[in-house]
Specification:
The protein is 73% helix and 0% strand. It is mainly α and 247 residues long. Helix 1 crosses helix 2 and helix 5 packs across helix 11. The protein starts with 8 loop residues before the first helix and ends with a helix.
Length: 247
């Protein structure tokens, strides 16, 4: 996810208050705190693979900037943004450390605009792939490992897998919102006519403000809920299909 650092002190104050409020809720609510703990592996996986995918795609297109900066790794510490990670854990939304790219290094066989779109698409696409992979794992456990899932360790793994699926779906869909600085903005820009693309670029600051307004209100959930529901429906069908094979 290509996210801009928040340098505005008022925005930073808002984020601190938001984090403190959510942490207070989790500490006061034992069940919610347990859910928080179980979600951490999924968050680390989602952010790490998302940012790695951006860097990997840029590298494949000829830009070695991510490789030179050590971003072609699955080490979570290389991809985590402290505030973004805490927000993702406590508030259900956030971001990773942006992967820097230099589109001028892309292979001449592809335009900078299309290259940017492919790099942007790689992150959300990776999240959806992870959601499918963990759904398959979950289906196999339901089909052939019900005895294991009944154990304490099995219940923990069950919760971790479910949260990992949910977080990857949510992060992938959220990043496809076509507003700066989300990945969807660069994907959309690649398909816009030249005049529309110029307007989009010249109004980036306004679109960014619109994104912030959506982000800090319930509008974000309303916008991404249909996409999440659609993908979850498909994943449930996949899980049921695998469970049926083991019946």
């Amino acid at each position: 996810m290509f996210f801009t650092n928040f340098s505005n002190p008022w925005m930073m104050l808002f984020l601190i208050i938001l984090i403190a409020d959510n942490l207070g809720y989790y500490l006061r609510t034992p069940g919610a705190f347990l859910a928080l703990i179980l979600s951490i592996p999924g968050i680390l996986i989602a952010i790490t693979f998302h940012e790695f995918a951006h860097g990997w795609m840029a590298d494949k297109l000829g830009d070695d900037t991510p490789r030179m900066q050590g971003r072609l790794t699955l080490n979570p510490l290389k991809h985590l943004d402290p505030i973004g990670a805490i927000l993702l854990i406590t508030a259900g939304f956030g971001w990773g450390k942006p992967v820097e790219i230099n589109p001028n290094n892309f292979n001449r066989t592809i335009s900078i605009r299309k290259g940017n779109a492919l790099v942007s698409l790689a992150g959300p696409l990776m999240n959806f792939i992870l959601a499918v992979v963990f759904s398959i794992i979950y289906g196999l456990l339901l089909a052939f490992g019900r005895g294991f899932l009944a154990t304490t360790l099995g219940e923990i793994i069950d919760g971790v897998i479910i949260y990992t699926i949910s977080i990857n779906v949510g992060l992938g869909v959220f990043n496809l919102i076509p507003l700066p600085p989300l990945d969807g903005s660069k994907i959309l820009s690649a398909f816009l006519p030249s005049k529309a693309r110029a307007w989009y670029a010249s109004h980036e600051r306004l679109l960014y403000i619109i994104f912030i307004a959506i982000w800090i209100t319930p509008l974000a959930s309303l916008i991404i809920s249909p996409g999440i529901k659609l993908i979850n429906t498909g994943l449930i069908k996949l899980i049921n299909l695998i469970v049926g094979l083991g019946a």
